[in-house]
């Protein structure tokens, strides 16, 4: 069944509800038609920002035009009116997705209300829809299909125990049978103990459950000692979810044969398994920026898809063990555990100080909190921005560079004296601009520097595939500002580079470039259209097709609150690959990238470099381009080093 129009979504609540709103706005097949809240100034400002109406009472809702409501308001068990709101919405014929947790009686009442009013209702436990958790669930199902599960060891903060039960049920394929002993007694005379331990059986598998049984009622999430951690063991090894947000680990079983003297047999037949890695890391852990900016909205989007599939009569995604009856079973297991553990200890700790990995492993970690990392032997290497999305770059950049920046750069360098000097293309990407420079300046030697391995692979392939480029272009993995430079430079190309460098790095780069730039040398700079940090809602910027696939390029951004100076932004890109003609459901593949960018204008570039900047003509909406020279150009539109207008 193909929908003729998108699902019209109302989001109730603007705290965690913001993630539902973002998912409804950015996910294909949905449209956000309004917010429902108490009407605070913050909620009104948020509704204005999204361009949707804000309702403060159910009676204000239109009689038509809402298909689905997301109730992201605490239920009675949390002291809120979420369940009453859900039942009233269902009485108006609106399908409801409600955020966990709910008391079993509340959930039962909602299921009955949905049946009575002929609508669909689901509880969203949220965390099973996160990418790393989905990977763990899928791997668990494959593992248990091959080998008998021997144990589950799980840990959770008490307020996220409801989602944990859902994750375990999906991983094991069933919740039944379940049975639990009372929590292990605490030792006397040792003061407060953060964890309680419960032994039991879930889905017929022995379970050890450790619960952080303390809670700050005013701020549950920020004072959890950790989030979900799960290990599932079989005779072949242990599958582990290291954290709710990843990664997944696989540790094969250690087994060595023994000889007649009971010594380990270390070589020869029977030692084939010694070649296995002791632990393999599946997937990559991202930053908390990525959690809030991508992971959580994506997870909400999958929950929306699940309810939409129920409405349309389509089967759910793999790993979903059922509908409302499964939701009821999850709630029963959770309720039984809550009753057995009793009320959590109320704590009000001070603000924690998160530690960076560099503080524990100085000199062994080259990245920041926003870098995705991969282990090579004993070193952890930094993943350069643009590496994850390099395979898609030319799909959208080729047309832009061919019709806009490429001709502009070529025109800016025309007539340049290149004798005995080199053109340096810093951040050359896949070589599209490098190619344009080579065509504009026949015979000139070019140094093309690109630190991102994926982009550099395409660049090298482009150079190798063209005899003229191959004779003149040297490809290097160097990065600014420490790039090894030739002694004499006639031109520098900095397209999409300067915003990646902070002020000291830019000063260092300018000092090194100007010491080598010929008297009439030129520097071409391309920036972004932003001159100050701003909120950029997730927006689809471009689409392209190849074969049977359609590629979508999405971008979002927000001020980088972690920066000391407050001048930076965190930009997130998403590539979605879909079958042509298919717009429903999850894409075939998603690739995400994230990087920091410092937005500023040409005025600052002129001031910092000491050069004169002349804007170049570009088409409307294209990134600004300028050519910088030591002497003023004759054009009246010259920008000298004036006061920065950021």
CATH superfamily of the largest domain: Vaccinia Virus protein VP39
Q: N- to C-terminal separation?
A: 51 Å
Structural class: alpha/beta
The percent range for strand residues is 25-35%
Domain Methyltransferase type: 424-523
Organism: Streptomyces polygonati
Protein name: Gfo/Idh/MocA family oxidoreductase
Pfam families: GFO_IDH_MocA, Irp3-like_C, Methyltransf_12
Structure description:
The chain has 4 domains: 118 residues, 3-Layer(aba) Sandwich (Rossmann fold); 159 residues, Dihydrodipicolinate Reductase, domain 2; 170 residues, 3-Layer(aba) Sandwich (Rossmann fold), CATH 3.40.50; 62 residues. Helix 6 packs across helix 8. The strands form 6 sheets. The chain has an 8-stranded mixed β-sheet, with helices on one face. A 7-stranded mixed β-sheet has the order 21-20-19-22-23-29-28, sandwiched between helices. The C terminus is likely disordered. The protein has 646 residues and is of the alpha/beta class. A hairpin with a 2-residue loop joins strand 12 and strand 13. The chain has 15 helices and 29 strands.
Care to give the gist of this entry?
The chain is of the alpha/beta class and 646 residues long. α4 (104-117) runs antiparallel to α8 and α5 runs parallel beside α6.
Short descriptors:
single chain; 646 residues; alpha/beta; Rossmann fold; Dihydrodipicolinate Reductase, domain 2; eight-stranded mixed sheet; seven-stranded mixed sheet; 15 helices; 29% helix
Q: How are the secondary structure elements laid out?
A:
Elements: E1 7-12, H1 17-26, E2 30-36, H2 41-50, E3 54-55, E4 68-71, H3 82-91, E5 95-99, H4 104-117, E6 121-124, H5 131-146, E7 151-157, H6 161-172, E8 179-180, E9 195-202, E10 205-212, E11 214-215, E12 229-234, E13 237-241, E14 248-252, E15 280-282, H7 288-312, H8 324-341, E16 345-346, H9 357-360, E17 373-376, E18 379-382, H10 393-413, E19 422-426, H11 432-440, E20 445-449, H12 453-464, H13 467-472, E21 473-476, E22 489-495, H14 503-514, E23 517-526, E24 536-546, E25 549-559, E26 569-579, E27 589-597, H15 602-609, E28 612-616, E29 625-629
Parallel strand pairs: 1-2, 1-4, 2-3, 4-5, 5-6, 7-10, 11-16, 19-20, 19-22, 20-21, 22-23
Antiparallel strand pairs: 7-12, 8-9, 9-10, 12-13, 13-14, 14-15, 17-18, 23-29, 24-25, 25-26, 26-27, 28-29
Helix pairs in contact: 1-7, 3-4, 4-8, 5-6, 6-8, 10-11
Domain Methyltransferase type: 424-523
Protein name: Gfo/Idh/MocA family oxidoreductase
Organism: Streptomyces polygonati
